[in-house]
Write a structure and sequence with these properties.
three-stranded mixed sheet, alpha/beta, six-stranded mixed sheet, 259 residues, 2 domains, Lyase 2-enoyl-coa Hydratase, Chain  A, domain 2, 2-enoyl-CoA Hydratase, Chain A, domain 1
Length: 259
């Protein structure tokens, strides 16, 4: 699925793992962003994928934008480059499958924004996570100002962005930025185990649940409940719903088809 220079995609059953691989720190070049956007498009269309893990094989998860490349870009083109990153991360956020970011080392600026675009985050104990943009004379421009307050609350998000403070793993766990923290040497296995826990559930149900949650966030309660009802109704006539009930009654593990 894709002939990419800076990404690698692996499959294990219902779980797809997308590995960031641009030495030395996965700085987000324009080419890497294009590849990540293409990967998101391909994954969105793949009904055989139930859960997506995004990880790194470098020393850091992602150190943010490639500032050396940014220095070579004409000022008149900067907005276009940042918009491309924002659109790419939005595509990741709107993948129909649940997504897990496996974060180690530094996840700063755009790297932190990529992690926030995922549904869940498992972090290594060595993580350094934060939004350093105001210390560089800019602001988070790839979703950080919007996703961070939705995740941890308005006041805490303001404090992190205004101060450009870098958090360790304990701070991330305390604020709810990390869902799990594990030793660095077992991060990738921990992420696979986490994905496996989710993938034991029905693929279509996972997609419908994510759809209902995301749609409902943008709606008043009445509209959100309607979105939930529509997502539920989409599952009523599926084979997986029948299999789930049958497996429960027979006291065995279900065998999902994704249909």
């Amino acid at each position: 699925m894709g002939n990419w220079q800076h990404l690698r995609l692996d499959r294990d059953g219902w779980v797809a793992t997308l590995t960031l691989s641009r030495p030395p720190v996965n700085a987000l070049s324009r080419k890497m962003v294009r590849e990540l956007a293409a990967a998101a498009e391909a994954l969105a269309a793949d009904k055989s994928v139930s859960v997506v893990v995004i990880r790194s094989d470098q020393r850091h998860f992602c150190a943010g934008a490639d500032l050396k490349e940014r220095e070579t870009i004409a000022t008149s083109h900067v907005s276009m480059v940042v918009t491309a990153i924002r659109d790419c991360f939005d595509a990741v956020a709107h993948l129909p499958q649940p997504t897990i970011a496996a974060v180690h080392g530094s996840a700063l600026g755009g790297g932190a924004e990529l992690a926030l675009a995922c549904d869940l985050r498992i972090m290594a104990e060595d993580v350094r996570f934060g939004f350093s943009e105001t210390s560089l004379g800019i602001i988070p421009g790839a979703g950080g100002t919007q996703r961070l307050p939705r995740l941890i609350g308005l006041s805490k998000a303001k404090e992190l962005i205004f101060s450009a403070r870098i958090l360790d793993s304990a701070g991330c766990l305390e604020l709810g930025l990390a869902d799990r923290v594990v030793p660095a040497d077992i991060l990738h296995q921990g992420a696979q185990d986490y994905a496996g826990e989710l993938a034991r559930n029905a693929p279509l149900a996972l997609r419908a649940a994510k759809q209902a949650i995301l749609q409902g966030l943008e709606l008043p309660m009445v509209g959100g409940l309607k979105a939930e009802g529509e997502a539920y109704d989409s599952l009523i006539h599926t084979r997986d719903r029948e299999e789930g009930i049958k497996a429960f009654l027979e006291q065995r593990s279900p065998e999902w088809e994704g249909s």
